[in-house]
Amino acid sequence: MAAHPTTSVPWAAARQAVHAAGAAAIRPPVTVPLVEAEGRTLSGPLTARAPMPAFPTSSVDGWAVRGSGPWRITGRVLAGSPAPALSVDGTCVEIATGAMVPDGTTTIVRVEDSTVTGDEVSGEARAPHEWRDIGEEAAGDEELMPAGTRINPAVLGLAASAGHDTLSVHAAPRVATLVFGDELLTEGLAGDGRVRDALGPQVPAWLRRLGADALPPVVPVPDSLDAHVDALRKAIADGADLICTTGGTMNGPVDHLHPALKELGAEYVVNTVEVRPGFPMLVAALPGGRFVCGLPGNPQSAVVAIVTLVMPLIAGLAGQPVPPLGTVTLGAEVAGRGGHTHLALVRRDAADGRAYPLPHANSAMLRGLAQAIGFAVIAPGTTGTSGASVPLVALP
Questions:
Q1: CA angle, 81 as apex, 80 and 87 as ends, to 5°?
Q2: Domains in the chain, start-ordered, CATH in brackets?
Q3: How confident is the model over 185-214, as pLDDT tens digits?
């Protein structure tokens, strides 16, 4: 690996390249109970183990009747109980919502549409039948969700309804955060040339929102080559699939990340991206299928690198597709950045629903980021004009 290769990659191509690298290094799937599967990714399709529903179930409270009325009451069927067949015309059973519909049922009369006189019921049905048929939602073995689906609470409920006790999932990538810089304070006020660390608290939080298993940050890592190498090796020993570093991505007097990567035998997947802000970002592959993502040291630039490189890399490692972009309509002009993609912080206006650029959006600032819905994507060689529809990278 060359010490400091400088070939930059277009923004869209960088997203695709790191996703492909992550997908090629995906770990074998694991089987977990449903209660542990939220936030992970299906390693295979979710299918129905039996028809859904498995038996006809009443949609209303009322009377399951056979033949013409009035009907003689012969019993009651509640949810969770078997339903004896209705074998004689002119008979009925009281039925609860969700209960099994007896064989022989002609229709169901809602309780509010019925009159009970002694042991007889009279009334009119609103529809031919008010129950869910066998397999109405899904046939047995039907695919319900494709492989690569991120598991949310609704998917968990669907899996349980489909008869699953466990799910085969891709393990959440384990990610370490190393914050480089002798100038960083972890508490108190900035002063005497030292500044507060703004990345140690936020990078792991972004990683968790991306579905990663984020390790506690290491802050600060001293500005020396030996300290960088030692910290990287410690993260590898701790089982990190991905190591996010902050700062040191250029070639200044205290930028030791490139030499450290060379010492560890890394190969670049992407080194610098044609995007502003945050272009000196990188992803390098370590021996053994692990990765280092070098984020710039400026806080907003680091978040640009997260949505540009870390987001698709984690998606690849987790068995998910490249994260899709949204769309916004601009409410004001957004400047371009020449031949580079411009990721411009925007807020959404509650009155007109349009996206507007934010102040305090310098790469070293966080005030604009804290108010943003994400980054409007202004393509190279263009300007975002008011009223234009442009892609949006939503914040996780």
A1: 140
A2: 9-27+171-317 (3.40.980.10), 34-50+140-170 (3.90.105.10), 57-132 (2.170.190.11), 326-394 (2.40.340.10)
A3: 788 898 888 888 889 999 999 999 999 999
